[in-house]
Every structure is written in structure tokens, then in C-alpha cells.
Amino acid sequence: MTQFRLADRVAKLPPYLFAEIDRLKAEVKSQGMDIISLGIGDPDLPTPDFIIEALHASAKKPENHQYPSYTGLLSFRKAVADWYKTRFGVDLDPDNEVVSLIGSKEGIAHFPLAFIDPGDLALIASPNYPVYPVATGFAGGESLILPLTPDNDFLPDLDAVSDAQWDRAKVIFVNYPNNPTGATAPREFYEKLVKKARDTGTILVSDAAYTEMYFDAAKKPLSIFEIPGAKDVAIEFHSLSKTYNMTGWRIGMAVGNESLVKGLGKIKENVDSGIFQAVQEAGVAALTQGEPYAASFRAIYKERRDLAVPALRKMGLDCRTPDASFYLWCRVPAGETSAGFVSRVLKNTGVVVTPGNGFGAPGEGFFRIALTVGKQRLEEALSRIASL
Ligand code: MLT
Q1: ipTM, 2 decimals?
Q2: Which residue has the CA at smallest separation from atom 4 of ligand 1?
Q3: CA 51 to centroid of chain Cα atoms
């Protein structure tokens, strides 16, 4: 069979991190090992019944069986705006400042096509969700990594970027609560970031998918739009995936600056046809009635976090206690690489964790644990790691 040559921009990509983890998992499983996957941020708890019932009722309506609107049902966009108002005190115009997404990954991946020209620079706080640099590259842009380390509290040093680099920068990507480190951004950092973006005319992309996975109600993660002036320069990506255990449903939203939301919408009109309306109506149910469920999920992740962090520390591993997200970020033992350690753990114990370098060079020397199994399996995974 003819083997066609991939386009250069695709040929040079490393394997997609989470697809590669699936592949390794399948390989070890085929050797008969009992796999415990802490490798991907995919909630193990089911989507709440009331959301499934809303989908069911909505799927029965024939008017929902045709093409949806490109920007999303107005009822979904209004539910997003109301949710932002209730949760963050932020006003959004559902007609112009909200667009539905087939999961936030889709929106993040398409955004650079709307705003990055070949040769433009994207500043990427890293370790990072792998899609930011990949999508930047697809648009012909270049990435400049801003390292997030324990020494800078996992906040990028905005002053380390030169004036010339700020001049060239078209976009800056930040992600708080942060995947993979679990760090959150204090208000002062966001204020400085918004000011810098406004002063330099840089688009500020905030990936906020994990704002609802917090562990201290007194320190709820912020939306970038809680900072005055942010709407001048920012777009925020959010998702129902993690908050309501809906990763498989593919539903999210982008909100904020009208020209940024509309620019993304223009790409989307040309490449996709929106989200099944029954999924959007289920999304409305989630956003309007889901808070008690989200609170119960937070309690479960907190219990897992408080079980895992001390156990890992007892093994001599240096792990952060995350303020938010369901990820633990730990250093690999001295003398090992991220990939070497993760592969040793997988091959010897069947426990899947994620190599830190998969999130960019500043992640080398770390690994990530996703708290995505119940207490008993988590204890089992921890005792297997301890036995190494
Ligand atoms: C992760 O494990 O980092 C996430 O689940 C990936 C994603 O949300 O696409």
C-alpha cells in the first residue's frame, strides 16, 4: 500500500502525550498485568444522573436532531453567562462574549489559527497542556517557554521576557489552576499579567478548566475576568469535563473579549458544526443545578489528595500538596529522568503515572499523578509504588 508522507508540521510532532500513555498501558496490560491508571485527568466518577436525564429528554425532541447553531444554543450561552456571574461575579454578554466548544481542547487548538500568523511568537507558561505549543506550531507560530518551577511558585516570571520578546509576542497562554502542577494564581499575579498584556497589546489566553476543583472554599480559584480591564485583552477557556465528570461528552466554552470570541467562532464555522443540542441542554442542566454535585466531587478528591500526598512523602518522594486540580506533582527520585521513572513504575507495578517532561522541558525531573481512582485502588497503587 502506498505510504503517504505526512506534512512536515505533523511529521515533526512527538507522539501525543496521552495517546502514548494509552499505548504503553495497552502494552503492559497485554502482558497480563493489572493496570491502575493515574495517567490521565479523566474523572472516574459518573456524570450525575440529572444531567443524563436532561440529555435523554432533550434527545427525544426532533428539533434537536438537526445541525446545531455554530456559536451554541442561546440557552447554553445564557447558562454560561449566568454561571460566570454567580461563580465569579463576572458579567458576560451571551450574544457576543460566549461561544460553545466541543470541549475546551478543541477551542484551544483552533484559537491560534484565528490569531497567530507565521513567525508570530506565543509565550507559554510551562509545564503546559501540550496543545498550546502544538496548535501554535500548526498556525506557523513559534513558542517561547516561560518556566514554572517550585522557586517561582509555578508563576511565570513576566519580567524575564525582554521588551523585544513582548513586542513580538502575539499571545500568552496561562493555565490556573495549573495542569500539571496543581498551583493556583494569586490575584496580584493576574493583575500584573493583565497590565502587561494591555501595555504590550498581547492576547491573554487563560485556560481555566480546573477552577472548580479546589480544596479550600476560602481560596476559590479566580477567573481572569475578575481583574478589571481583562476583557480588553483576554479570552478564557472553560469546560464542563472536570467539574461535572463529563469528559466524554465534549462540551466547553470560550468567553471574554468579543473580537477574540468572534475570531475563534469564525474558524469554528469553517471547520465544525457545533455541539449536539441535547448535549448543550444537558450542559444547561449541569451549569444551573450542578453545584452540590461539584461540591461532593471536591470532597472526594480532597480525601484522595490527603491520602496520597503523605503516603508519597513517606516513600521519600517530594510532592506538592495542590491547592486545586486533581493532580499531584512530584519529583522523580534523584538520578532518574521523568521517562525512566515512569516506565520503571509501569513495568514493575502496573501503575500508570505521567512523565513531567511530556508537559514541556520544565517538567523534566517530575511526574504527575491524577487522582482518578477510588480510595481502595489508590491505596493499592501507592503500596505498589512503595514496594519499588
Ligand atoms: C490531562 O490528563 O492532562 C487531561 O485530561 C488532558 C485533557 O484534558 O485533555
Answers
A1: 0.93
A2: 41
A3: 22
Q: How confident is the model at residue 20 (pLDDT cuts 50, 70, 90)?
A: confident
Q: How much distance in Å is there from the Cα of 91 to the middle of ligand 1? A: 28
Length of the chain in terms of residues written: 388
Which of 179, 245, 249 for mutating ligand 1's site (highest number of atoms within 8 Å of CB)?
Answer: 179
Domain ranges of the chain: 8-46+292-387, 65-289
Q: What CATH number was assigned to the domain covering residues 8-46+292-387?
A: 3.90.1150.10
- Asked if residue 315 has pLDDT above 90, the reply is yes
Q: How far is CA 317 from CA 245, 259, 353, in A?
A: 29, 46, 14
Residue among 348, 358, 350, 349 at smallest CA distance from 327: 358
* Whole-angstrom distance, CA of residue 281 vs CA of residue 79: 10
Are domains 8-46+292-387 and 65-289 of this chain identical in fold? Answer: no
Radius of gyration of the chain (CA): 21
Would you state the cell numbers that stand for residue 179, as one nine-digit string? 495542569
CB 278 within 8 A of CB 55: yes
> Which CATH code fits 65-289?
3.40.640.10
**What are the φ/ψ torsions at residue 371 (nearest 5 degrees)?**
-85, 65
Ligand 1 binding pocket, CB closer than 6 Å? 18, 40-42, 105, 179, 370
Q: What is the pLDDT of residue 313?
A: 98
Atom 6 of ligand 1 has which residue's CA nearest to it?
41
